[in-house]
Amino acid sequence: MSVSLNQAAAGPSQGGRAPSGGRERSELGASSTAGPSQGGVPPRGGRERSELGVSDACAIDFGTSNSAIAVGGANGAMQLVPLEGGQLTLPTAVFYLAEGPDLHNLPRRFGRAAMAAYVEGLDGRLMRSLKSCLGTGLMDQATDIGAGRNLRFAEVIAAYLAHLKLTAEAACGRTLRRVVMGRPVFFVDDDPVRDASAQAALEAAARAVGFDEVVFQFEPIAAALHYEQTVTAEQHVLVADIGGGTSDFSLVRVRPGGAARQDRRDDVLASHGVHIAGTDFDRRLSLAGPMRALGLGTFGPSVQGAPPREVPSRIYHDLATWHLINTLYSPQRLAELRALKTNFADPKFYQRLNHVVLERLGHELAGQTEAAKIAVAAGGETEIDLSLVEARLAWPLTAAQADAALQVDVDRIVQAAIETVRLAGLVPDQVDALYFTGGSTGLKFLVQALQAPFSRAQSVQGDRLASVATGLGLHAESCFSH
Fold it and tell me: Which of 135, 289, 415, 456 lies at a CB distance of 3.0 to 4.6 Å from 194, suitable for a disulfide?
């Protein structure tokens, strides 16, 4: 998941080749309806930007795990909109109900309500990580959402964007017609055609829900925009965006007044990442802790003098993996669990495991493990409360135990950061600042591990969940205001 953009971003005047995919630089970071001053065509509908300011504009961070939207406030500055229970971010998830009335109207839940419906075991289909469909053949494929109904993935993405738009319009009391949307440096690695297709599909979804003008900006540039306003000289900034599913790094160039530039393609020097992040940490800690309390790694009885065998581990690995937990509640997997009973030398481990599965406690265990991960990162030692499994049962977790469980994953993330700098043609000492964003950058041990190779760099902690959305809002102000 890597590429150097030094040459790919160079225009003919710099002696480089054309931007990846043959696209002109004005395409990204500027609206497809850019005005003549940007070398584009007039905005569709004939509106000049000065006519409306930011009153009908918004900025959307359509993220893999979470999304956010910003609109113009009373003072004209862009502000994030509370989306669900006062939260400024909304999990990028849709749950289509397959039971109840009016199924032809596609009843659905979004965000945390969607996740809760899935955990509760309601009949239906949970759709997550919608962004990963962009640039793939899935976009125009129909998928089963239950009760004999099918939808294209493009329609699911449009439904989610419509929910964001309607929520924001209800909050600000205005119809939103223009949007700045974030996009990764590459939707699809090493395939310019599919990458361009991904952006086109996202733009089509935005227009389908009522946006007349759609502008794109690179997510790592957006994340660094607030920091860029503080610099007094050109700097190289390594943006570390580490969330639930991926750890993404971009080496970007920032400078005084840089935010006024609509096209920032040549300021993204390199991008790289790995599919390791917060949910992988949770899984590792679960396997090192709660699953041990349920019998993982224990042995069965000796049979006819033969050495005892370790209890089969498949069910434990699935129980530690968020999206596989519900599969354990199917009749087939319950039969598999019953067949395991004779594999345990100590019956208490089977009883605990059986209780968790029959009572559908898997996601609650996952939540306890995630909470312990956060607690040990903040304070160094904690206990994972397992009293829902058995009275007074707990599993101690120290910083040393967490470090040991996560060391392999953390090392790979750090190497991805170093590789990003190498791809940009730089060395670690040439990085001026580390900019941290994404939910997992709240983990002290991870941040410290990333700081180590870049001892000369200043560390800057952005808003863990909303840095990109906030930066896109700043870009919207630049695009749609005088």
Answer: 135
Per residue in 383-421, pLDDT (tens digit) is 999 999 999 999 999 989 999 999 999 999 999 999 999
Tokens 């790979």 map to which residue? Answer: 412
Give the CATH number of the domain where residue 86 resides.
3.30.420.40
CA angle 1, 471, 234 (to 5 degrees): 80
Q: Which residues contact 187 (CB under 8 A, 6 or more apart)?
A: 134, 135, 194, 195, 198, 199
Q: What residue numbers bound the domain in which 265 lies?
A: 230-463
List the alpha helices (DSSP H) in 424-466. 444-451
Within 8 A by CB and 6+ apart from 193, the residues are 21
Determine the Cα–Cα distance for residues 220 and 357; give it in Å rounded to an integer.
Answer: 41
Statement to judge: residues 190 and 294 lie in one domain: no
- What's the mean pLDDT in 76-103? 93
Tell me if 354 sits within 8 A of 362, measured CB to CB: no
Q: Are residues 300 and 431 in the same domain?
A: yes
Distance, in Å, from the CA atom of 252 to the CA atom of 420, rounded to the nearest integer, reads 10
Cα distances (Å, whole numbers) of residue 189 to 1, 4, 185, 194, 198: 6, 11, 9, 9, 11
For the chain, what is the domain count? 2
Q: What is the mean pLDDT of residues 223-248?
A: 92
Length of the chain: 482
Name the nearest CA neighbour of 436 among 265, 218, 226, 180: 226
Is residue 200 within 8 A of residue 96, CB to CB? The reply is: no
List CB contacts of 438: < 8 A, sequence separation 6 or more: 240, 241, 242, 243, 247, 277, 464, 465
